[in-house]
Every structure is written in C-alpha cells, then in structure tokens.
C-alpha cells in the first residue's frame, strides 16, 4: 500500500451539499439584515436564494420531492442561516417544522400542498375560540391564530383546532384530553392581520390570521404527530415537530450568537475605544470574553448535535424515541438558547457605544437573541422538566 498515494475525496451527500449551500448564503443574509428588519418580512431576493438552496424543503419527505434530512444535520443548516440573519433562520425552522406534516398526509394531498419548489406551509397558535365542527366530507373551521412566522411568503396555512362531532360533542381521548386536529388551506382563504410590531425577529412577519366557517376537506385534516396517521417511516419521522422546533430554535440561537461573536472579533481587532489608548484587542477583559464565549457556544453546540445523533441511532435501532431521548433533546435545546443569550448579552455590553446604532449588526442581533429567548422554547421551566426526570418524577410531556 502506498501511504503517499492521494486520498480520494468523500463523495458529496445531500447533507453536505445543503449545508454547504446554507453556508454560502451567510454573506448575503448578513448584508440583507437591515432590509429584512425594515421590511418585517424576507425580501424577494432573500427568498429566491433560500428557495434556490432548498432550505424550506429540508424536512419535506423525499417522496414529495424534499431532502428529508436527519435532525442532527438539519439543525446545522439552521445554525448557518442564523449566522447570517436570525429572522431568516427562524422562518426556515418554523416552516420546516410545519412541513413535517407531509409525512402524515395522503400522497396526493402532500404533493398538492408541498409539490411546488416554492410551496411553504405556516401556522400559529390558536387564540380563544378556534374550533372545527364535523360536517359531511370535512370540517367547518372558525378561529384566529397568532405568531404565524413566515406567513407572508407561505402558500398554505394550518389551523390547530379542537374538534366537535356533528352533534356538538367535543372530541376527546379515552383519558379525557381534548383531541386537536390541524386543518390545511390555501393562504388566500384567510384574513391576515398585520400585527407584527415587535422588538426582535422583525423579519419573520409573524402575523395573525383568521377564518370564519371555512370548509376543509377531511383529506386536508391531520392529527399532528399521531403515530396512527403517520405514513412516512424514515428516521426523520421518528421525531416529532416538538423535537424539531426545540432543537431547531436552539440552533437559531447558536447561529445568532456565533454571528455576533464573529462581528465582535472583527470590531475588537480594529477598535480603540474613545478616551483610551488601549485597543480592544489588547484588553484582557475582551480577550477573556472572546475565549469564554467561544467555549460556551462550542459546548452547547456539541451537546445539541451529540444528543440528536444519539437519539437518531437509538430511533434507527428500536423504531422510536425513548422518554430519555426526548428529555435530553429538550435539555440540550433549551441550554443552547440560554447559553446563546448569555454570550450575546455579554458581547453587546463589551462592544460599548458601537452596539447601540441601527447601522451596525450588534443591536439587531441583540434584539433578535432576546426575542428568541422569550419564545416558548426558551422557557427556564423546561430545565425543571429535566430535573424532574433526573429525580425520578414522571415529568409533563407537553414540551417533550
């Protein structure tokens, strides 16, 4: 054997190709950040680039023309996009999580909703009176839903509804819990209310939408994450949308913080603060902050990816995630958001007056990160759930 012979490069895979495509978009997204923020939506050129890289199709089943990435590979793509812009990454993860419903639809319905290269599904959480009443052939849907990230570029919307039989009886499981189904319909069927005037993640356009007595055929109704209704049996669909949202939004935090750290290193390399003669790069406090920030992000990232890889290996062997797997994913995802926020806030403070101007990236990343951590996935109570499990108490599985 000739040890000096050239080593052939590993063949490119779908995973490596889409990750490389996501990373190539970082400069474009970074430059577009102010426009994304001002428009409160993703501009056309940004959407063109993201669709060109198939970033909204990473969790769509291959049978419907998607990429169907495993979660550990998928979240690295989300992280890369967030290094460019947090709103773009947030929309990508929210819409990708929605697209997992394709694995629960009849093939012809999945192709209608997701068959186009630019088809995107968005949905939000119900407010108040949302309901779906059974009628012959389908459902009559009425309600209002909030926080529909990516709804401005979506082609379809989803509505999570408690269901009611034709006699008005609410559908319940044998243990008495309300049954909820998700109703899918074209975006133009809804009234969209522009309410997204917020601190951060402005570019997600997370508007409110409503429908009144809208008919939705049975085939466009699904019980999300129901094993009984699941039609796709690949590794991805052993995970639930809850697992994807948790880990994906953790990756949005990691990418946002990594982008902030990169910007700060650039600033520290060039800036001498006013009224001083010491460059930032020569400050021991700055040097320490850069070192510890990098360590925190690398540790949180490693934990998240390793946790997903371990869960994937277990799911491939046994066919499902264990409770321990789901607790570990929740822990790693929440920890990623927590560590990312701590890094961003520390860097923002150390950047001084430079960080307060709209013209720079620091204040936008600061606003975005502190909005990410306010979302349900960033709740500190999720770590209480982990502690309950470790203490031998059966935790609530609502967020697992």
Describe the structure.
This protein has 400 residues and is an alpha+beta fold. It folds into 3 domains: 14-114, Orthogonal Bundle (Butyryl-Coa Dehydrogenase, subunit A, domain 1); 121-225, Butyryl-CoA Dehydrogenase, subunit A, domain 2 (Beta Barrel); 239-390, Butyryl-CoA Dehydrogenase, subunit A, domain 3 (Up-down Bundle), CATH 1.20.140.10. It has 11 helices and 9 strands. The protein has helices spanning 14-24, 26-39, 44-52, 71-84, 86-99, 107-114, 241-270, 284-318, 323-350, 361-372, 381-390, and strands at residues 121-123, 125-126, 131-135, 138-148, 156-164, 180-186, 191-193, 207-217, 221-222. Strands 1, 2, 3, 4, 5, 6, 7, 8 and 9 form a 9-stranded mixed sheet that branches.
Q: How many strands, what sense, and barrel or not for the largest sheet?
A: 9 strands, mixed
Query: Helix count, per DSSP?
Result: 11
How would you name the oligomeric state of the polypeptide chains in this document? single chain
Helix content: 40-55%
Strand content: 5-15%
Mean pLDDT: 94
- The assigned CATH architecture of the largest domain is Up-down Bundle
What is the number of domains? 3
Distance between the termini: 51 Å
Uncertain residue segments: 1-11
SSE order in H/E notation?
Answer: HHHHHHEEEEEEEEEHHHHH
Class based on secondary structure composition and strand pairing: alpha+beta
Backbone shape: globular
């Amino acid at each position: 054997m000739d040890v000096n012979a050239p080593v052939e490069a590993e063949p490119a895979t779908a995973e490596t190709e889409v990750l490389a495509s996501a990373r190539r978009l970082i400069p474009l997204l970074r430059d577009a950040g102010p426009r994304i923020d001002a428009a409160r939506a993703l501009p056309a050129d940004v959407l063109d680039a993201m669709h060109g890289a198939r970033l909204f199709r990473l969790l769509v089943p291959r049978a419907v023309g998607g990429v169907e990435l495993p979660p550990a590979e998928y979240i690295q793509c989300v992280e890369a996009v967030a290094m460019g812009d947090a709103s773009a990454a947030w929309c990508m993860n929210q819409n990708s999580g929605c697209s997992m419903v394709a694995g629960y639809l009849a093939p012809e319905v999945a192709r209608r909703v997701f068959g186009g290269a630019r088809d995107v599904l968005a949905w939000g959480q119900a407010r108040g009176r949302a309901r779906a009443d059974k009628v012959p052939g389908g459902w009559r849907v009425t309600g209002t839903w909030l926080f529909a990230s990516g709804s401005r570029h979506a082609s379809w919307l989803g509505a999570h509804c408690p269901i009611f039989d034709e006699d008005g009886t609410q559908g319940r499981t044998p243990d008495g819990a309300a049954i909820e189904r998700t109703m899918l319909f074209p975006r133009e069927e809804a009234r969209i209310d522009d309410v997204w005037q917020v601190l951060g993640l402005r570019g997600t356009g997370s508007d409110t939408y409503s429908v009144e007595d809208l008919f939705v055929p049975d085939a466009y109704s699904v019980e999300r994450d129901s094993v009984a209704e699941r039609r796709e049996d690949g590794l991805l669909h052993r995970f639930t949308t809850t697992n994807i949202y948790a880990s994906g939004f953790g990756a949005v935090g990691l990418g946002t913080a990594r982008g902030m750290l990169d910007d700060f290193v650039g600033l520290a390399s060039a800036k001498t603060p006013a009224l001083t003669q010491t460059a930032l790069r020569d400050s021991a406090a700055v040097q320490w902050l850069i070192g510890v920030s990098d360590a925190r992000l690398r540790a949180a990232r490693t934990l998240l990816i390793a946790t997903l890889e371990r869960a994937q290996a277990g799911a491939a062997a046994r066919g499902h995630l264990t409770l321990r797997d789901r607790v570990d994913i929740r822990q790693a995802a929440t920890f990623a958001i927590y560590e990312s926020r701590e890094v961003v806030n520390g860097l923002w403070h150390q950047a001084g007056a430079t960080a307060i101007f709209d013209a720079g990236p620091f204040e936008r990343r600061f606003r975005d990160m502190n909005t990410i951590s306010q979302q349900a996935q960033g709740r500190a109570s999720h770590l209480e759930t982990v502690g309950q499990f470790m203490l031998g108490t059966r935790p609530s599985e609502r967020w697992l």
